[in-house]
Amino acid sequence: MRGARSGQGAERRPAGAHPAQWVLIAPEAAFDPPKTPDSEPLFTKLRNPSTGEATLYLFNSGAQQLFEVKAFHEEHRSWFIGQTVQQDGRLLFVTPMDPLFLILYYLIKADKEQQGKFQPLDQVVLDSEYPSCPLLLKCADVKQYIQHVTEEKEIGSQKFHKYSQEKTLKWLKKKVNQTVKALKSNSISVGERVLASTFINSKQITDTQEDYVRYAHGLISEYIPEDLSKELLKYLGLTELRSPAPEPPLKDPERDLLGHGFPDNHVG
Description:
By secondary structure, the protein is an alpha+beta fold.
């Protein structure tokens, strides 16, 4: 069940200032009552697993679950919260996020820097720029499912891990198949979107299985590095679609008035 809530930011503010507030839509699990005073839900910035840039996320009580936070913004919008007017008129959407995607970023980074060396996870998932990063390892089932993306070695009572591209691609393929199933079950048409993203015009648009797989691959690629996205495309047995070469400009005044290039109907 989802509902609209006003959330408060965790950043320090001057004494007497109103706390930062947002209006958000979130599942109830995101704001379960904390079991201890120091385990309240936490809004924090973490490294985006695709771009490496700062992105806002939410840990629920006790950091048992990770949520992605996305903002919908319109100009000249504000909210009435209680007896105050909140000038930040963004509407935040909070949705569950698999923490393995964020952990995967650090596994790949460590694999390149340490040349495939086995390491304890708490030495891999560290980031001086994002001090909340280690909370990813507290999320429920991470230790159970980390085997989907790593090779594991146990020495005594301690476990060591290293990134496995083979296992990761297998895991990502399952994610793609789950996404395809969800798209179909919700009767979401994707054929037109796949064609639009490549600037290819077609009079007959149908939703083929390949269209669904390509579209699902695109969605998953928003959460993985570009190099891994390309490897996943090959692993799925798909070739990279390229936009057709534009026709050479015609020496025609009317053509010049219309302008050159593709129409502005593509999906970014």
